[in-house]
Amino acid sequence: MSQENSRLVQDDSTGDWVVVAPKRRQRPDVGGKKITAAEDHFSVQSLKSQQILATYGSGKNRIVAIENAFPTFEQQGGVRGYQELLIEGKEIGRFADFSVVQILNVLRAYAERARVFRAMDGLKCLMTFKNEGVAAGASQPHAHSQLFGLSFVPERLQHISDARKKAEKKHRATAHELAIREASSERTVFSDAHVTAFAHPAARFPYEVRILTRRHTDNITTLTDDELKSVAKALYALLPFVRSKKLSFNYYFHDVFGDPHEHFEIRFVPRGVSTQGGFELDAGVSINPIPAEQAAEEYRTSRK
Hints:
Layout: E1 7-10, E2 17-20, E3 52-56, E4 63-67, E5 81-88, H1 100-118, E6 125-132, E7 144-150, H2 155-171, H3 175-181, E8 188-191, E9 195-198, E10 209-213, H4 225-245, E11 248-256, E12 265-271, H5 278-283, H6 292-302
Antiparallel strand pairs: 1-2, 3-4, 4-5, 5-7, 6-7, 6-11, 8-9, 9-10, 10-12, 11-12
Helix pairs in contact: 1-4, 4-6
């Protein structure tokens, strides 16, 4: 195997898995610098027509799906997988400034791309996520999302599945029902007939919010358009907080194709609030200084 191929390596002494991905070092990274339209790697003008896999919407809010030119996972050789980018809008801009309609367009594009990934041979899992801001790992200022289709199920996702089954047996309720119970009024950030967004008492990160549909549903392709609209409103409700604090953020969700009992949810995590120290890194136990009730109150207050 070429040294430029990605490879999955395990530390036998800890059990930790690492993907070594040499091609990732070639990607353009402008960090937090302000760039001109001519320097924008994600402008429609800079994308070659053969790179464009699909387009959604039109005008300045057009969303373009392209294959990731600097993949962590590879279709041939290395660690098998397939990656795409969704370029959100024709111009440089932040998701944090998007309207509900713009967010809804992004969610609809996620669902359409997820259908494509689910039909591909050899993939077992799809991970969809957004990195916005330097502290969240973004290398470009142009709003975009990433989709990773994997030929394996990451160990953490398998652990989540096992923990869900154990909790359901212990409490004699579905994991969805157990999660909804945690969405008390003091912890709720947004709520309507289709969705609840709340700060979980066991959140790993400060100000982490979970967005769940009230109806049990496995993945984003099964959401109704009304549910997608509610998810868009929930995400929109979180943005005034990150704008007011000038925070980077991630949000992410996954779909393990062989597990139809998962429940679709998005986890939204502001970044730059705190940094993990030696204890967290060694023990694998997070320290969250912000109680769920305080986090929810600060989100609600930021919208006033």
